[in-house]
Design goal:
The structure holds two protein chains of two kinds.
Chain A: H1 7-23, H2 26-33, H3 40-53, H4 71-83, H5 91-104, H6 107-118, E1 124-127, E2 143-146, E3 150-157, E4 168-174, E5 186-192, E6 198-204, E7 210-223, E8 227-228, H7 234-248, H8 252-267, H9 280-308, H10 316-339, H11 360-366, H12 377-387
Parallel strand pairs in A: 1-4
Antiparallel strand pairs in A: 2-3, 3-7, 4-5, 5-8, 6-7
Helix pairs in contact in A: 1-4, 4-8, 5-6, 5-7, 7-10, 8-9, 8-10, 9-10, 10-11, 10-12
Chain B: H1 7-23, H2 26-34, H3 41-49, H4 68-78, H5 87-101, H6 104-115, E1 121-123, E2 140-144, E3 147-158, E4 165-171, E5 182-188, E6 194-200, E7 206-217, E8 222-223, H7 230-265, E9 267-268, E10 271-272, H8 277-305, H9 311-336, H10 347-360, H11 365-374
Parallel strand pairs in B: 1-4
Antiparallel strand pairs in B: 2-3, 3-7, 4-5, 5-8, 6-7, 9-10
Helix pairs in contact in B: 1-4, 4-7, 5-6, 5-7, 7-8, 7-9, 7-10, 8-9, 9-10, 9-11
The chains are: A alpha+beta, B alpha+beta.
């Protein structure tokens, strides 16, 4: 029983650590440290730095330009990324539609889409949820009718994160209603956002941010070559993608970074006043979250060790999603408490207070979404109850 | 990176599982718990024969050379049938002190018979005023020429009524809360002036209040250096904390499994109660608590084995988790078993009671959270 890395793995860790230390531009580092939302330009610039290093396709097979890393290497990368507080890649292209295309797509689709995804030259959006289909995703109603060489798509997708920047959107659409189970008759379509009939409408979140959108499809013609895999099998492909999304939501090492910063902040005296660390109540709450996070780290490691020894990853992704998002929200609460009055200004403003406090409540409000998206945490519990406990 | 059992650990787990399957079902456990001494001497000899009593001791001390991970495996396995034999008192507590600070002659005299299962011993780490503070020692030891005289009271001494040898921390200098000035004595239970009143604890185990009234201790009963016993006491209690946490994790897993199983079989309103979402989510919480606890336990055990910087934090972290999530899991297990869960006859109640007792042992959740609040990762 040990958690030591091999010589090779340690050398790899040094390389990754040096990359984040030396290659992350100062303005991006500052924006991250201030807790600001990272604008698209910065986000793409950063993803392309990773791309040029050859590390964009962390989970991708080598034949499609991926790293071909072992699960331990992927873990090391995620860890260093988090502890460096580097921006996480926008997942829709690299972590979601990319893997679906290289796993289930045609050769033509692979050649056409994968290089741009890897190089972050095309921005993708996610078209899963609908106004009437949230956690109950299989009740989706967007229709795609087959019309010879194309489909005609009608319907509405919602919660499309950063869809205002998207060049393309991948969608789950209903191609048949004549099915025994609602999960059947769903297909996976790639749709050009510039196609006639596609329109987009912002949804403003409680923090005032334009982060998500509603996307309308009004008789949008989608060529049949944009269907991924087989018609009617979209649910199966979509599930693969969701597992990536959930494991991704654990956020372990960004949380660790945030907790370290919070402890530093708590120990700082402002204008000669006693530091927040003198408040036992606060420090005990902070310590409780640290314990929770440590357990998450070791759950991840145990999952990783199991996968590395050849066991199939299972519903642990649900587990990591639940715990990881709960911890993220707990940290936001603590940050807001630590900010005191300076949590109250509505706009983040580095000139107010000590610099970062005005972001805290906005993050707290914004991150209420994390226990709702990617299948709400209650849905995750349903999944665990069924697939792990056999209930 | 490797979380699997090594060969010795697999052997230990297998041999405990076989022993329990063959000789230690719940009714047997209850009969031992209800017996005069509160455990079976015959079973204790079997523990010694199987080598389990030798696990944490070095080879020159006649042991296996095992570490915290081996004790973890043993304790977690023994928990599956709530074994009542005094492994904690004899091996982890008394043995922990002796292996750390006893001289060669003292080991020969006390540690060897303990490993051999012939001598029962315990550690009197608690006094009525100490709460969870190990440095709160007001029992005094005063030197008269070559001998010492001990006076004071010890509380909640595990298996204190049946121990032949008592390891007694006593103050030889300083004030009540000083870590310096604590000396460890090995006191035979039949020494003049030693009296005890034994009682059962809520978990079916035994403990005793101990009174030391003008007890004479020879110079060769001092364990380690005079006035410097705290380090060994502290380290031994850390080991013991991990050991009971391993036991707790074993109990949590049993309770989770029994509850899930029960919910599949128990029907109300014409359906298994496990089909109700409210109960499903609670059982998922139980599963998650088990996974969290197992993970933190492994972290703590590995950190302890390498004596890393995080060692103290890790012990407090797992104990805190057992005290909070473990408590909730135990309560939910009883709740989901309904009326049956609060009966004496159902084993679930007894697992719950032991888990509750462990919550208090060596510092409850609040005590350990307080330590964590001060300890930056």
């Amino acid at each position: 029983m040990h958690v030591t890395f091999s010589e090779d793995e340690l050398a790899f860790r040094e390389e990754v650590r040096a990359f984040f230390r030396d290659e992350m531009p100062g303005d991006i580092r500052d924006a991250m440290d201030a807790g600001e939302e990272i604008p698209p330009e910065m986000q793409i610039r950063w993803q392309q730095i990773i791309y040029r290093k050859g590390w964009a396709g962390v989970n991708w097979p080598v034949e499609y330009g991926g790293t071909g890393w072992s699960s331990v290497q992927k873990y090391i990368f995620a860890r260093e990324e988090g502890l460096a507080n580097a921006p996480r890649v926008i997942p829709f292209g690299l972590n979601m539609v990319g893997p679906v295309i290289y796993t289930f797509g045609s050769d033509e689709q692979k050649q056409r889409f994968l290089p741009d995804i890897l190089a972050s030259t095309v921005w993708w959006g996610q078209g899963y949820s609908e106004p009437g289909a949230g956690s109950d995703l299989a009740s989706l109603k967007t229709r795609a009718e087959f019309a010879g060489d194309h489909y005609v798509v009608n319907g509405t997708k919602t919660w499309t994160t950063l869809g205002q920047h998207a060049d393309w959107i991948f969608c789950l659409v209903r191609t048949s209603t004549d099915v025994a189970r609602r999960q059947e008759g769903i297909s996976f379509l790639l749709i050009d956002m510039k196609a006639p009939g596609v329109s987009i409408k912002p949804i403003i979140l409680l923090d005032g941010a334009h982060e998500v959108n509603e996307v309308h499809f009004d008789n949008v013609e989608v060529p049949v070559e944009n269907l991924v895999g087989e018609e009617g099998q979209g649910w199966t492909y979509g599930k693969v993608l969701l597992q990536h999304e959930r494991t991704n939501s654990a956020n372990t090492f960004h949380s660790e970074y945030a907790l370290r910063k919070l402890r530093e902040q708590a120990n700082r005296s402002v204008r000669g006043a006693p530091p927040l660390a003198d408040d036992r109540n606060f420090m005990r709450k902070l310590a409780a979250v640290e314990v929770d996070l440590k357990s998450l780290e070791y759950i991840e490691l145990r999952t990783l060790a199991a996968v590395a020894s050849g066991k199939a990853p299972g519903p642990e992704s649900s587990f990591l999603k639940i715990k990881g998002t709960e911890i993220l929200q707990a940290i936001d609460e603590l940050k807001m408490e630590a900010a005191g009055y300076y949590a109250l200004p509505f706009k983040a403003d580095p000139s107010v207070g000590e610099g970062t406090e005005t972001q805290s409540a906005l993050s707290y409000f914004n991150h209420r979404k994390v226990t709702i998206f990617a299948g709400s945490n209650e849905i995750q519990k349903n999944i665990i109850a069924k697939h792990v406990l056999g209930l | 990176m490797d979380f699997s059992h090594n060969e010795i650990q697999s052997m230990l787990a297998d041999s405990v599982a076989k022993f329990i399957a063959k000789e230690y079902d719940f009714d047997t456990r209850q009969s031992y718990a209800d017996s005069d001494r509160g455990f079976s001497d015959e079973v204790w000899s079997t523990f010694a024969d199987l080598g389990w009593t030798a696990v944490p001791f070095s080879e020159e001390d006649g042991g296996f050379g095992g570490g915290p991970a081996d004790v973890m495996v043993l304790m977690q396995s023994l928990a599956s049938s709530l074994v009542v034999e005094p492994y904690l008192a004899n091996i982890v507590l008394a043995g922990g002190i002796l292996r750390r600070v006893a001289g060669a002659a003292q080991k020969e005299r006390w540690l060897q018979p303990i490993i051999g299962g012939r001598l029962h011993a315990t550690l009197a780490f608690h006094e009525p005023q100490s709460h969870y503070n190990l440095a709160s020692v007001s029992t005094t030891a005063t030197q008269h020429g070559d001998t010492w005289e001990l006076n004071g009271v010890k509380g909640m001494v595990p298996n204190g009524g049946t121990a032949d040898l008592l390891i007694v921390p006593a103050r030889t200098s300083g004030d009540n809360l000083d870590e310096d000035g604590i000396t460890l004595f090995a006191v035979a239970a039949d020494t003049k002036g030693v009296t005890h009143s034994a009682y059962a604890t809520v978990d079916g185990l035994r403990a005793a209040e101990l009174s030391l009234d003008h007890v004479r201790a020879e110079a060769d009963t001092v364990l380690g250096n005079v006035g410097q016993g705290f380090a060994a006491l502290n380290a031994t209690i850390d080991d013991a904390t991990l050991a009971v946490c391993a036991e707790a994790v074993g109990i949590m897993q049993v309770l989770k499994d029994k509850t899930v199983e029960y919910s599949k079989n128990r029907k109300q309103f014409g359906v298994p109660i496990g089909s109700f979402q409210e109960l499903q989510h609670r059982m998922v919480d139980m599963l998650m608590a088990c996974e969290q606890a197992q993970s933190l336990l492994m972290w703590a055990v590995m950190t302890r084995a390498t004596e890393g910087d995080d060692c103290k934090r890790a012990v407090s972290a797992i104990k805190y988790l057992i005290g909070t999530e473990g408590k909730k899991l135990g309560q939910d297990a009883v709740q989901i078993h309904g009326g049956m869960g609060v009966t004496w006859d159902l084993d679930v109640a007894h697992y719950f009671k032991r888990l509750t007792a462990i919550g208090t042992l060596f510092g409850n959740a609040d005590w350990h959270l307080d330590k964590l609040a001060d300890a930056a990762p």
